[in-house]
Write a structure and sequence with these properties.
Layout lengths: L1 E5 L4 H12 L3 E6 L15 E3 L5 H10 L4 E4 L6 H6 L1 H22 L3 E7 L23 H20 L2 E7 L1 E3 L14 H10 L5 E3 L11 E2 L1 E3 H16 L5 E6 L5 E2 H12 L6 E3 L8 E2 L4 H7 L7 H15 L1 H4 L2
Parallel strand pairs: 1-2, 1-4, 2-3, 4-5, 5-6, 6-11, 7-10, 8-13, 9-14
Antiparallel strand pairs: 9-12
The protein binds nicotinamide-adenine-dinucleotide.
Family: Belongs to the NAD(P)-dependent epimerase/dehydratase family.
GO molecular function: UDP-glucose 4-epimerase activity
InterPro entries: Epimerase_deHydtase, NAD(P)-bd_dom_sf, UDP_G4E
Length: 327
């Protein structure tokens, strides 16, 4: 079996490629290096530089590498940018997936894993745990492209006999090694690191939400655990798993923004108090995954805790921002 990993030079993709290769799977990466970093991949993992939007190239890669399964991570992922450039997000995320699925169906590839996101739920209703049957109501074009992507994956699966798994990642954090860390500043952990590095207090948006400490509660998942979930999904499909499966990938445990900032203070040694700003319109007070379906169907549960995420993310941040380490 050979797995094609699209977006495999990205933050999550490089972890997935390494975990799958480390577990003995043959993998090949297709990445256009728009936000990926080739040196995240070890030399023995083939990297083809090109776009999932290039149908001719995708067909060639599927044939030349005798690909039998695809893990599709390649996408644009910035929520704010997707609000400003919705057509680009639909073209790249949904268009890229369309091209890839056509080539996959034509080549007779029968296994497909898709990177979805908790963004498909939008601001989930006031529930303790967000189950896969919670209504999907994305609030950004990015989230819409992920939900449309899931629909397309399941429909193509039914039409062409492709077994599929859609993984809805919650808040991904941490790194297996500092050089594999996320270099973007789009999520709360790097945003707090960025504020501290600039000698500014971290910000909390609202502390009167109906949560134990009044700040928003989220579910954080270590990228190494997430990578292992992809391996579990790939193994399920390789083992004859049929039909479609859509599962949350989270820890099923909530961490508040205040708890997260306190932990970052401990890890970084910079414990300055946070500034409390007004709550942002539409921010759900709580969004925590019900992670039981992934355990039942994939035999996978997260093993790493939030401290490990923050410590490894901080080590990665300091590699790229040496001035932060001196703080
Ligand atoms: N990081 C998160 O918190 C998070 C949460 C939920 C879902 N996701 C999804 O996980 C996937 C990976 O995210 P990431 O955080 O690793 O982002 P990333 O930007 O680090 O990785 C995306 C990779 O895809 C490549 N790429 C983009 N468009 C491409 C194209 N058309 N053809 C080939 N390669 C292309 C980029 O060069 C990059 O290497 C994305 O689909 C994203 O939407 C991420």
């Amino acid at each position: 079996m050979t797995w094609l990993i699209t977006g495999g030079a990205g933050y999550i993709g490089a972890h997935v490629a390494r975990v799958m290769a480390g577990a003995g799977e043959d993998v090949v990466v297709l990445d256009d290096i728009s936000s990926g970093v080739p040196r995240r991949l070890p030399a023995d993992i083939p990297l083809i530089k090109g776009s999932a939007l290039d149908g001719g190239l995708v067909r060639q890669v599927l044939a030349e590498h005798e690909v039998t399964g695809v893990v599709h991570l390649a996408a644009r992922k910035q929520v704010g940018e997707s609000v400003e450039q919705p057509a680009r997000y639909y073209r790249e995320n949904v268009g890229g997936l369309t091209t890839l699925l056509e080539a996959v169906a034509e080549a007779g590839v029968r296994r497909f894993v898709f990177s979805s996101s908790a963004a498909v739920y939008g601001n989930p209703p006031d529930v303790d745990l967000v189950g896969e049957d919670t209504p999907c109501a994305p609030v950004s074009p990015y989230g819409e492209t992920k939900l449309a992507g899931e629909w397309l994956v399941r429909a193509a699966g039914r039409a062409h006999g492709i077994a599929t798994v859609c993984l809805r990642y919650f808040n991904v954090a941490g790194a297996a090694a500092p050089e594999l860390a996320d270099t973007g500043v789009f999520n709360v952990i790097p945003m707090v690191f960025d504020r501290l590095t600039r000698d500014e207090a971290p910000r909390i948006f609202g502390d009167t939400h109906p949560t134990p400490d009044g700040t928003c509660v989220r579910d954080y998942i270590h990228v190494s655990d997430l990578a292992e979930a992809h391996l579990a999904a790939a193994r399920r499909l390789a083992g004859g798993g049929e039909g479609d499966l859509t599962v949350n990938i989270g820890r099923g445990e909530g961490v508040s923004v205040r708890e997260l900032i306190d932990l970052i203070g401990e890890v970084s040694g910079d414990r300055r108090p946070a500034l409390v700003e007004p709550a942002r319109a539409g921010d759900a007070p709580r969004a925590v995954a019900d992670a039981r379906l992934a355990a039942a169907e994939l035999g996978w549960t997260a093993r790493r805790g939030v401290r490990e995420m923050v410590e490894s993310a901080w080590a990665g941040w300091c590699l790229h921002h040496p001035e932060a380490a001196r703080h």
